[in-house]
Design goal:
single chain; alpha/beta; twelve-stranded mixed β-sheet; three-stranded antiparallel β-sheet; 19 helices; globular
């Protein structure tokens, strides 16, 4: 059996100018990065008079180690739409180097449903992440330099909230002490590194509508507090202009292609817990401007990525999805029903029945909380039995939602045509899209709305430190912002061991902080990792390159 990278390397790619022509992008808006990738000039959005296409969001049930195949399904659906004669664009996030070299692997799809060039997309690509890291670290350098040069803003070094970043899993950098070595080498203080995808710069870039908006958002970023508990911003440090200069090309979305030659935009990649977990607003709007159908995805399950896509991204960008695809696997559902990962290859209707409420809650949320039409895409494995598939179909039908089998991993777009036809049908339905909360509620009320409506919990428990933070953020005028809840991706609750569709739980709010540039309040409900570590046997050990420059070992 061919690996993902072997499949990707077996397909002859079309020149990116041919893909641009297929997408209807005039040559003057194309900036070539070699033969197989390009950036699209932002002025295309302003200058195009074409009506926007339909927007399709792909999300998933709660993730498990058994895998769901959300990105693979997203790409396969786009290829399926192309096969049934539709003008389609797909918009995805860029992968982070940390997971590529760690345990998760790349994020360019899999099997015969991939975006290519797979090696480039999973490694340096067009340099966007390097630019984001440079802008992040410029701000950190200017902040510490300000303190060293006399600290006229009276910044309290113990209350600096801005971290440095690097796009690599490096647990050694989670907590550091820097500025050592005497006065000329800086002011000693405790510091911290995040992985680049966890940087607020990433979230800011992905929510900005243009370069002016990007600069304004950067200037609002809070980097710390003064001795009098007043916020200090990047604007106060006069850093916004230089940071924006570093990001001017990174703001332009990247054009690539699927294995079947469907035009694809891959741009941005914020975490789906401490940020909103979606590709950039500019990329999504560009895809809608170029295609009659734009297919995009949001990170993790429907309670994280989709909630943030709908409550944060759609709110800021004025987007209204036309249909939602919820990806599931029988294997993952059986894990939610208590089955061990080593025992998933045998039929077990009892475990499947116990795990199904997880999927059904996600389906109900999309349909009843957000008012959107949905379809369940079952990513079928050879070990899935007809009886298991029939049970999933029957239970979803009880909620008035159809189930379609997807075999895009093995068959590419051919395995996604049935899903494509159902999505086209759903896009013609009237929908009553609404948010799960309105922003004029208090911060606590917004958290409680998500906890009850989306997670299925009984409410929230706010720790004293978090209550104090909420009160202060409200005083500072941030209380009307949307919320971005950081919690485990493995459960509807904040306890990763509570699988399925748990009930009778409360979400514990431990910390609350402001991402003023991104424009949301981050609510921390557990121990959220902003700098992952490498596993005992990292994927990097298997990655190699031969004398001809051909890369192997990526997955």
């Amino acid at each position: 059996m061919l690996t993902d990278i072997e499949i990707a390397q077996s397909v002859k790619l079309r020149h990116i100018s041919e893909i641009a022509q297929k997408a209807g992008i005039p040559e003057e808006y194309l900036e070539l990065y070699g033969r197989n990738k390009a950036k699209i000039d932002l002025s295309l959005l302003k200058n195009s008079s074409r009506e926007n296409g339909k927007l399709i969001l792909v999300t998933a049930m709660t993730p498990t180690p058994a895998g769901e195949g959300k990105t693979t399904t997203t790409i396969g659906l786009a290829d399926g739409l192309a096969r049934i004669g539709k003008n389609v664009m797909v918009a995805l996030r860029e992968p982070s180097l940390g997971p590529v070299f760690g345990v998760k692997g790349g994020a360019a799809g899999g099997g015969w449903a991939q975006v290519v060039p797979m090696e480039d997309i999973n490694l340096h690509f067009t340099g966007d992440f390097h630019a984001i890291g440079a802008a992040n670290n410029l701000l950190a350098a200017m902040l510490d330099n300000h303190i060293y040069q006399g600290n006229s803003l009276n910044i309290d070094p113990r209350r600096i909230t801005w971290h440095r970043c690097v796009d690599m899993n490096d647990r050694q950098l989670r907590f550091v002490t820097d500025g050592l070595g005497g006065r000329v080498n800086g002011v000693p203080r405790e510091d911290s590194y995040d992985i680049t995808v966890a940087s607020e710069i990433m979230a800011v870039l992905c929510l900005a509508k243009d370069i002016t908006d990007l600069k304004e958002r950067i200037s609002r970023i809070v980097v710390g507090y003064t001795y009098k508990d007043e916020p200090v911003t990047a604007g106060d440090l006069k850093a916004a202009g230089a940071m924006t200069a570093l990001l001017k090309d990174a703001l332009k979305p990247n054009l690539v292609q699927t294995l079947e030659g469907t035009p694809a935009i891959v741009h941005g990649g914020p975490f789906a817990n401490i940020a909103h977990g979606c590709n950039s607003v500019i990329a999504t709007k560009m895809a809608m401007k170029l295609g009659d159908y734009a297919v995009t995805e949001a990170g993790f399950g429907g309670d994280l990525g989709a909630e943030k896509f709908l409550d944060i991204k759609c709110r800021y960008a004025g987007l209204k999805p036309d249909a939602v695809v919820i990806v599931a696997t029988v294997r993952a559902l059986k894990m939610h029903g208590g089955k061990a990962k080593t025992e998933l290859n045998t039929e077990d209707l009892e475990a499947l029945g116990k795990g199904l409420p997880n999927l059904l809650r996600h389906v109900s949320n999309i349909k009843n909380v957000y008012g959107l039409p949905a379809v369940v895409a079952v990513n079928r494995f050879p070990t899935d039995t007809d009886a298991e598939i029939d049970l999933v179909i029957a239970k979803c039908k009880e909620l008035g939602v159809n189930t379609v089998l997807s075999t895009v991993w093995a068959e590419g777009g051919k395995g996604g045509t049935a899903l494509a036809e159902e999505v086209v049908r759903l896009c013609e339905e009237e929908n009553n899209f609404r948010f799960s909360y309105e922003t004029d509620l208090t911060i606590e009320e917004k958290i409680e709305a998500v906890a009850k409506k989306v997670y299925g919990g009984d409410g929230i428990s706010v720790l004293p430190a978090a209550k104090k933070q909420i009160d202060r953020l409200t005083e500072l005028g941030y209380g009307n912002l949307p919320i971005c809840i950081a919690k485990t991706q493995y459960s509807f609750s904040d306890d990763p061991t509570k699988l399925g569709a748990p009930e009778g739980f409360k979400i514990t709010v431990k910390n609350v902080r402001i991402s003023a540039g991104a424009g949301f309040i981050v609510v921390l409900t557990g121990d959220i990792m902003t700098m992952p570590g490498l596993p005992k046997v990292p994927a990097a050990e298997r990655i190699d390159v031969d004398e001809n420059g051909k890369i192997s070992g990526l997955f």
